[in-house]
Write a structure and sequence with these properties.
Strand 6 and strand 7 form a beta hairpin. This protein is α+β, with helices and mostly antiparallel strands and 348 residues long. It has two domains: 92 residues; 233 residues, BirA Bifunctional Protein, domain 2 (2-Layer Sandwich). A seven-stranded mixed β-sheet has the order 1-4-5-9-8-7-6. A two-stranded antiparallel ribbon has the order 2-3. It is built from eleven helices and nine strands. Helix 1 runs parallel beside helix 4 and helix 5 crosses helix 10. Bound molecules: 3,4-dihydroxyphenylalanine.
Length: 348
C-alpha cells in the first residue's frame, strides 16, 4: 500500500515536471494521452486496485482520484496559459504603428498626348461641338471614295495605306468621320462634331513620322456656313492652345474633299516670326488642313449642296504637342520614358 502511494506521488511529480516543459498544444495532447489516457499508469493502477484487500481499496482510490484531479487541473491551467501566450504573440505581430510614416504610392498621370487631345476637344466642346468616335478598321469607301478620292486618284498616293482586304483598311485619316457623321445626323442641322482618334500609315518611323498617330477632325454643316466662320473658329482655337496673342494665316492648299482648301499656319513659336531652323526661315508653322466641304461630299452624304454648306478641318495632336512643348522627335511620345512623362505630370 505505501509502495503504491509512493509510486503515485512520483508519477504525479514526473507528470507535473513534464507538463511544465510542454511548449505547444500538440505536446499537451501527447502529455494528456500519456498521463490521463486509457493506457496511462494512473488508469493501470486503478485497474490493479482489485488485488488489494477490501479495506485498503478506498484509501488508495482516493489517492488515485486526487492525483488525477491535480493533473487534470494542471492541464487546464497549462492550456489556458499556452492559449493566452499564443494570443499575445498574434497581437504583437499584428500591431499597427499608427505613428509610422505612410508609404507613398508612385502616382501616374495622363500622357501628354492624351492631355493635349483632351485640351483641344474641350475647346471645341465649349463652342458647342459634339464628340464623335468611329472605327479604326475602315472601308475603302468611307476612307477614300466618299471623300471624293476615287480609285486611282493621284492623291491616294499621298497616304500609304495598310490594306486588310481589298475593301478594308486601317483608316489613314479621321476624315471618314465627316461622312459617317453626316449620314447619322441627316437631315438635321447644324452638324457640329469633333472626332479624335488613331490613324495609320505605311511610313518608316523617324523623328517626324510614325506608322500610327492621332488626328482630330472637325466638321460643321448648316445653312450659310462660310469660310470666314472657318477662319474665326480656327483663330479662336489657335489662340486657346498657343496663347491669346497668336497670329494665324490661311494658306491655299489642296484636299480632294474640300473646295477651297487651305492650311492653317501659326507664327513660329520658336522665333516669333523672324525666321529660324524650326520654321525653315518662313516665320510660320503649319498646324492643320481645312476647307469648305466639297459639294460632292455633301451631296454624297445626303445634304443638298445647293442649300447646305460646311467647313472641315483635320489636325495632328502629336504635331501640336511637339510645337507647343518643343519636343523634337515624335518617337518620344511613344517611348513612355518617365523622364519625359514626369515633365507633364499634372495633378488631376
Ligand atoms: N485628312 C487630311 C490629312 O490627313 C487632313 C484634313 C485636311 C482634314 C483638310 C480635313 C480637311 O477635314 O478639311 O491630311
Amino acid at each position: 500500500m505505501t509502495d503504491w502511494i509512493a509510486s503515485l506521488q512520483s508519477l504525479r511529480d514526473r507528470a507535473l515536471g513534464e507538463l511544465a516543459d510542454a511548449q505547444d498544444m500538440r505536446q499537451l495532447d501527447e502529455w494528456r494521452v500519456q498521463y490521463l489516457g486509457k493506457k496511462s499508469d494512473l488508469t493501470q493502477i486503478s485497474r490493479q486496485m482489485g488485488q488489494l484487500p477490501a479495506e485498503e481499496r478506498p484509501v488508495l482510490g482516493e489517492h488515485v482520484n486526487q492525483v488525477r484531479s491535480v493533473l487534470q487541473d494542471a492541464l487546464t491551467k497549462k492550456q489556458e496559459a499556452l492559449h493566452a501566450a499564443e494570443l499575445e504573440r498574434r497581437f504583437a505581430a499584428e500591431t499597427i504603428d499608427v505613428t509610422a510614416p505612410g508609404r507613398r504610392k508612385p502616382r501616374g498621370s495622363m500622357h501628354p498626348l492624351t492631355q493635349i487631345i483632351e485640351e483641344i476637344v474641350e475647346i471645341f466642346v465649349a463652342m458647342g461641338y459634339e464628340v464623335a468616335e468611329g472605327p479604326e478598321v475602315e472601308t475603302d469607301e468611307y476612307n477614300f471614295e466618299k471623300l471624293n478620292l476615287p480609285k486611282h486618284h493621284p492623291a491616294r498616293d499621298m497616304q500609304d495605306t495598310f490594306y486588310l482586304t481589298e475593301s478594308l483598311l486601317l483608316r489613314t485619316q479621321t476624315s471618314p468621320m465627316q461622312v459617317r457623321t453626316m449620314e447619322r445626323m441627316r437631315p438635321n442641322v447644324p452638324v457640329k462634331v469633333i472626332a479624335p482618334g488613331k490613324v495609320y500609315r505605311r511610313d518608316e518611323d523617324d523623328a517626324t513620322h510614325s506608322h500610327m498617330f492621332h488626328q482630330i477632325e472637325g466638321l460643321v454643316v448648316g445653312e450659310g456656313i462660310r469660310m470666314s466662320d472657318l477662319k474665326g473658329t480656327l483663330e479662336l482655337f489657335a489662340r486657346s492652345v498657343f496663347g491669346a496673342d497668336q497670329t494665324v494665316r490661311l494658306r491655299p492648299s489642296f484636299f480632294p474633299f474640300t473646295e477651297p482648301s487651305a492650311e492653317l499656319d501659326i507664327r513660329c513659336t520658336n522665333c516669333g516670326g523672324s525666321g529660324c531652323r524650326m520654321c525653315k526661315d518662313t516665320g510660320w508653322l503649319e498646324i492643320l488642313g481645312c476647307g469648305m466641304v466639297h459639294p460632292r461630299v455633301l451631296d454624297g452624304a445626303g445634304y443638298d449642296s445647293r442649300r447646305f454648306s460646311g467647313f472641315a478641318f483635320g489636325m495632328g495632336p502629336e504635331r501640336i504637342a511637339m510645337l507647343k512643348y518643343g519636343i523634337e522627335d515624335i518617337r518620344l511620345l511613344y517611348q513612355n520614358d518617365l523622364r519625359l512623362l514626369r515633365q507633364f505630370h499634372r495633378v488631376l
